[in-house]
Amino acid sequence: MLRFSIPMESAKPNVFLYDTTLRDGTQGEGISFTVSSKVRLAEKLDSFGIDYIEGGWPGSNPRDMAFFDQIRKVTLKRAKVAAFGSTRRASNAVEVDPQVKLLLEAETPVVTIFGKTWLMHVTEVLRTTAEENIKMIEDTVRYLKDNGREVVYDAEHFFDGYKDNPKFALATLEAAQRGGAEFLTLCDTNGGTLVGEVQNIVGAVQKHFPKTKIGMHCHNDAGLGVAVTLAGVEAGAVMVQGTMNGYGERIGNANLTTVIPNLSLKMGYPMACAEHISRLRDLSLFTAELANQRHDSKQPYVGASAFVHKGGVHADAVNKVKHSYEHIAPEAVGNRTRVVVSDMSGRASIMMKAQEMGLDVESKSPAMTHFLDELKQLEFRGYEYEAADASFKLLIRRYVNQKADPFKVLNYKVIDEYGEWTDDVTAEATVKVKIGENIYHVVDESTGPVGALDGALRKALSHEFPQVNDVRLTDFKVRILDGQKGVKAIIRVQVESTDGVNIWGTVGASDDIIEASLEALRDAFLYKIALDHGETE
Amino acid sequence: MLRFSIPMESAKPNVFLYDTTLRDGTQGEGISFTVSSKVRLAEKLDSFGIDYIEGGWPGSNPRDMAFFDQIRKVTLKRAKVAAFGSTRRASNAVEVDPQVKLLLEAETPVVTIFGKTWLMHVTEVLRTTAEENIKMIEDTVRYLKDNGREVVYDAEHFFDGYKDNPKFALATLEAAQRGGAEFLTLCDTNGGTLVGEVQNIVGAVQKHFPKTKIGMHCHNDAGLGVAVTLAGVEAGAVMVQGTMNGYGERIGNANLTTVIPNLSLKMGYPMACAEHISRLRDLSLFTAELANQRHDSKQPYVGASAFVHKGGVHADAVNKVKHSYEHIAPEAVGNRTRVVVSDMSGRASIMMKAQEMGLDVESKSPAMTHFLDELKQLEFRGYEYEAADASFKLLIRRYVNQKADPFKVLNYKVIDEYGEWTDDVTAEATVKVKIGENIYHVVDESTGPVGALDGALRKALSHEFPQVNDVRLTDFKVRILDGQKGVKAIIRVQVESTDGVNIWGTVGASDDIIEASLEALRDAFLYKIALDHGETE
Q: Tens digit of pLDDT for each residue in A36-78?
């Protein structure tokens, strides 16, 4: 039954990928790149097989021009670098427009300019006439062409403009075409257009310009950034603009890490990067790191949760038939199946988890049986290993591989005090830690008990394990486990730590929040020490 | 030019909303709810206007059955509660199938059962025959109908199954229809189906079952969860299953906080919650707090970044023409335009919140202005009132109605100690509390510092307010607010309490976890005292 399957050898046109992470992506809240990061990301995008890289808007900030100065010295394999800007101002001849001058000074092979499609924007925002707007588009495209540039014309607010006045919207595209633009890009600038509207409008544009290459530039404000991009391609567009991880203004741009596998793996469109799609997750992580953003675990295809199975029915089925609960093979995008250990886990999911970590454990061995018993006890007492891989690996090391922990906390004491007169809290922690035959008894203070314990533990451990000072806590969460029992119920603490390279999660559980915190902190340091001894992978 | 605009008065069918946050949502990594949080969320969903609330899978874990026991005692305005489960096992007659028995014991008006559509799953995973699978579906639906339930049939892997073998896939739906199912829900269980496929397949199903109500249950693995849901509705489906904030397995379920405004505000489908859509952001934040999840700022419509403008061109244009860079009016979903980076609440949203709680506050009064200033300070220091209604009401009492708190905590001290020899932790807390002119200086101990503080506070208060002994803590959650800063960042504690009749949430924030806990506990007791004086409603 092949009715709905995708023919692998198709006559579909090649799709050009146009990445604007370095320009539109930086409009996202909290997103910025240093100049050297911009260059590194451009090189990475090039080696992945991206066709066009929009590097910035010359003049909008000093970093963008510095990027163009540097990228000119780099030999890229395939990608063409584009500078982005607007058409000339209404008041200027194009030859003397300062912004157009900067676009040429960027010395890029490609220039992308945007112009107004929506009449309301022309009259209310630009405060000029429809006729002048048309001239601004044609003049600017032609001038850039005459200066040897490949020109991509971005029709801002195309869909809103077309819905308002299709005749005027098409006239702006005709102006860009007369000027000589290689691509006419239809922008859903406000991100609110629906799939059916895009199907109809791109179809109409395609009919009007049967020989011109059409592009799509979409945003995600209605949660449809990817869907409308795909709809545009199906209606005839051959260029896709978007950003890595969907970074961009407001809710973000069409996410290329989702668009690419959909177009290539599922819809069968040829593209230059097709052979590198197994490096997609790597590219996504790399971009997040350069942008100093937490990588979104819920990102389609490339997120850490994309192929995760929580114990029970699904994990069991995936074990039986690999694609029973996976829409593609995770390896195709450089991802992998993960099984998380939850209170519904059986032996099957534990074994899968151990295998996934590359641990050589035999399902029927006595150590494994002992470990499973121990694990059930621990889960009953409130530990949860779903987001605490590091604590789980330490458990396996202890119970299955039977290695002793390199240190032990013998005792601790925390004093936390608030006084009305000072209106201030002070926390002091003392810990006694045994490392081999040595005992370290130290004290530290902080604004809170967890900070004080963390400081005291570091002090004690750094005598023999100075690497603990590289560990930084990045997240700290607390849950009470059985709401019915109130404050005497079990408290679970989840800690996330990093040493700048690795990120790991640990867990502690106790009826005392301080003890639970101490356990999670202790595991975070134990894991760092094990990591440095190459014991955990 | 109305060609693509949406007619406001349309003949479109009503869409039923089916929320499965409490069941499928909890399959998401890191998502879990206490029983009392489940009840609170169900009440909130009901008052928002959701039609069906799937509460859990009886027997899969102890919490789900406890939820059904409690929700039965609650009078909901509109929503019908559904219990979820599978068809009988191949080896059992339906009358003796233990899982089906549990479904009836949940005593819900609606039961939703899933069955297999994909032949490969029948033979490889269930390891039974096509014929037996058909019987399992029909038997189970009919048995539940005979027992007076409204039955929603969820056809698992419907799209993959249909692509593999449309005849068998339709035969499974026919079985459910023969059994008497009210809804046939088409599930894209693996989340990989494309928009065009859904359009074709739902169209075909609709043709085959012209008189049966069709539902959609989609996942977001291809980044199309919302798009395929909308495509299904346009092709004839009248029920939408999804979760708040898109929580759910792997990448998550179709996000109802995106689906609802798309269907209602943009596509003109009538739905029961239409009049409450301006409370959508509030509902989304409430759900995130109960799930102890960071609210995703990039969530369409309801995220903090949804209508943010990073200054410059767009902010200026938005100033000139409000809808120039906004796809809808943010207020329509309870959100707002932000130009500068700030999370502070505006007067309008506070007023909305106060009105929602039935509080009579005047927008322009000096007390209200003072209150808003205070609130901005508090939010800046880490307090958040989305799920802490009680603390918010206490604030209004203090600042708007200018009533003094009936007690004050002058100082406290906590000592928490662990010793290797006893292998035990002890926590001792002393508090000095002022009530009127009296001062009570007491000490208590517990297994942890929060319990010790709680005990000491009760001891001190019960001299004059014995009702505090009726208060029971039902949930306790802690978040660190700025992950980058590590343990010295602000810590927010959310406490949920009950006196057996009412349930209320309170909040505390500090760089000291003990101080933040004390504040949340203090508010919990203050609220109970105010409740008994009839001062808060």
A: 889 989 999 999 999 999 999 998 777 889 999 999 999 999 9
Which tens digit of pLDDT belongs to each residue from B10-68? 589 999 999 999 999 998 887 888 888 899 999 999 999 999 999 999 987 778 899 99
Nearest-neighbour CA in chain B from A448: distance (Å):
4
Residue A111 to residue A364: CA distance in whole angstroms: 64
Q: Which residues contact A334 (CB under 8 A, 6 or more apart)?
A: A278, A279, A280, A281, A282, A302
Say yes or no: A479 and A457 in one domain.
no
Number of domains in chain A: 3
Same-domain check for residues A175 and A231: yes
Residues of A in contact with B224 (CB under 8 A): 226-227, 262
Does A460 lie in the same domain as A420?
yes
The β-bridge partners of A54 are: A82
Q: Which domain holds residue A203?
A: 16-290
* Domain final residue, candidates A437, A464, A491: A464
> Shortest CA distance to B84 belongs to which of B178, B153, B145?
B153
Q: Do B36 and A483 lie within an 8 Å CB cutoff?
A: yes
pTM of the model: 0.75
Provide the CATH number for the domain around residue A397: 3.30.160.340
**A380 in contact with B, Cβ within 8 Å:** no
CB-based contact A512 B414, cutoff 8 Å: no
- Asked if the structure places residue B332 within a domain, the reply is no
Specify whether A282 is located in the same domain as A385.
no
Partners of B483 on chain A (C-beta within 8 Å) are 294, 474-475, 496
Residues A452 and A386 in one domain: no
Q: Is residue B5 part of a domain?
A: no
Residue A440 in domain: yes
**Is A222 within 8 Å of B190 when comparing Cβ atoms?**
no
Please state the rounded mean pLDDT for residues A430-449. 92
Strand partners, B53: B19, B81
Burial class (CB in 10 A: 0-12, 13-18, 19+), A373: exposed
Task: Name the closest residue on chain A to residue B451, using Cα atoms.
Answer: A487
Query: Domain check: are A424 and A535 in the same one?
Result: no
- At which of A464, A489, A509 does a domain end? A464
Predicted confidence at residue B343, as pLDDT, reads 31
- CATH number assigned to the domain comprising residue A448: 3.30.160
Chain B 44-63, residues with CB within 8 Å of chain A CB atoms = 60-61
Kindly state the helix (H) or strand (E) to which residue A459 belongs, with its residue range: helix A449-461
Nearest to A241 by CA among A457, A82, A432, A29: A82
Q: Which helix (DSSP H) or strand (DSSP E) does residue A391 occupy?
A: helix A389-399
Instruction: Give A96-122 as a DSSP string.
Output: G-HHHHHHHHT--SEEEEEEE--HHII
Residue of B nearest to A422 (CA): B411
Give me the CATH number covering residue A263. 3.20.20.70
- Are B476 and B465 contacting, i.e. CB atoms less than 8 angstroms apart? no
Which residue from B minimizes the CA distance to A310? B27
**Interior CA angle at A348 toward A342 and A353, to 5°?**
65
Looking at the structure, do residues A501 and A436 belong to the same domain, yes or no?
no
Same domain, A134 and A178: yes
What number is the ipTM of this complex?
0.75
Question: Mind listing the pLDDT tens digit for each residue in B205-232?
Answer: 999 999 999 999 999 999 999 999 999 9
B71 and B42 Cβ atoms separated by less than 8 Å: yes
Among B29, B306, B518, the residue with its CB nearest the CB of A251 is B306
Q: How far apart are CA A228 and CA A211, in angstroms?
A: 22
Q: Who among B32, B194, B447 is closest to A266 (CB)?
A: B194
Q: Which of A162, A144, B323, A164 is nearest to A172 (CA)?
A: A162
Contact A515 B222 (CB under 8 A): no
B235 is a domain residue: yes
